[in-house]
Task: inverse folding
């Protein structure tokens, strides 16, 4: 008899649970089942000038593209090829911060090459750059020696031109056949500025380069926090174990009571 009542009670509980979850689903369902709006006709033409005018600001880069007429080359590639195009666009700030090799003395032909250097003659989604990292150096639209190296650092695309090490900081537009990715710096090619690259300003002394006298203090400074945290986590683990064993005891007690 007791067992019957118990199972009846259990059944009721299960039914109640099922009903409530069904209701919850009903409450949530209307948005998912609402008719999806008819897909807008996909524009088969991406206006690069328009994109670069609206986003950014990319005015400096756009001005270079227009003065060298490279914008027409890019637009033609976007319009008329299956390959598509990938363009790396530096913001106006990036042009302002160029100091050492200046763009001011470049010839019109070099400026044109510089512009072409910022594009790949193929559409790449950000995910494709994982594979491109293995293919470095990758030829740019400028051809010849104008190549870029890519590395994927946990999902962020890093670009290396020798003179410039930067990363893709956002995706302005990425729909086959046109990808526009914002980069933090202007990409300066070795093919124009040579390979006599001044050493990068060292940001912070890397641990493996630091003089040995500094190493022990750094190691001991860095060493103490990790020592304390494992202790904390192990005590937490012990507490968790305690909670679990109490739960198991309680449950087994109930089972014993009802058998
Ligand atoms: C592209 O966009 C620019 C700027 O908005 C505009 O001046 C130009 O007429 C557009 N070109 C075409 C072919 O629609
Ligand atoms: C690209 O396509 C648009 C729309 O068809 C056209 O107006 C524009 O002239 C084309 N531009 C180039 C460079 O092919
Ligand atoms: C650019 O040319 C000017 C004069 O023609 C010169 O004084 C200047 O140093 C040059 N700048 C660079 C970065 O080569
Ligand atoms: C990327 O490379 C992997 C193997 O390394 C391959 O299976 C995959 O098809 C490649 N993807 C593209 C888009 O090329
Ligand atoms: C690009 O990668 C190639 C091959 O790994 C290497 O030889 C070259 O020096 C790299 N170029 C730059 C600019 O880092």
Result:
């Amino acid at each position: 008899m007791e067992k019957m009542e118990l199972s009846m009670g259990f059944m009721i509980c299960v039914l109640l649970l099922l009903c409530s979850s069904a209701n919850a689903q009903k409450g949530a369902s209307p948005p998912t089942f609402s008719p999806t709006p008819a897909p807008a006709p996909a524009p088969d033409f991406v206006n690069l000038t328009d994109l670069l005018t609206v986003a950014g600001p990319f005015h400096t880069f756009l001005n270079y593209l227009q003065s060298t007429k490279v914008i027409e080359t890019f637009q033609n590639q976007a319009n008329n090829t299956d390959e598509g195009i990938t363009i790396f666009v530096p913001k106006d700030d990036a042009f302002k911060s160029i100091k050492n090799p200046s763009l001011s003395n470049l010839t019109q032909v070099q400026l044109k090459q510089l512009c072409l250097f910022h594009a790949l003659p193929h559409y790449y989604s950000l995910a494709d750059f994982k594979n491109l990292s293995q293919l470095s150096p990758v030829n740019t639209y400028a051809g010849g020696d104008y190549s870029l190296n890519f590395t994927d650092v946990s999902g962020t695309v890093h670009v290396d031109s020798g003179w410039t090490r930067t990363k893709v900081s956002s995706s302005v537009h990425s729909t086959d056949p046109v990808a526009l990715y914002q980069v933090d710096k202007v990409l300066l090619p070795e093919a124009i500025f040579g390979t006599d690259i001044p050493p990068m300003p060292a940001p912070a002394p890397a641990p493996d380069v630091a003089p040995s006298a500094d190493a022990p203090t750094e190691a001991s400074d860095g060493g103490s926090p990790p020592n304390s945290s494992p202790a904390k986590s192990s005590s937490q683990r012990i507490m968790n174990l305690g909670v679990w064993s109490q739960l198991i005891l309680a449950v087994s007690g109930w089972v014993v009571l009802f058998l």
Observations:
- Confidence is low (pLDDT under 50) at residues 12-19, 26-32, 209-235.
- The beta strands are 85-90, 119-120, 138-139, 147-153, 156-160, 165-175, 178-183.
- The radius of gyration is 31 Å.
- Residues 128, 131 surround 2-acetamido-2-deoxy-beta-D-glucopyranose (ligand 4) (CB under 6 Å).
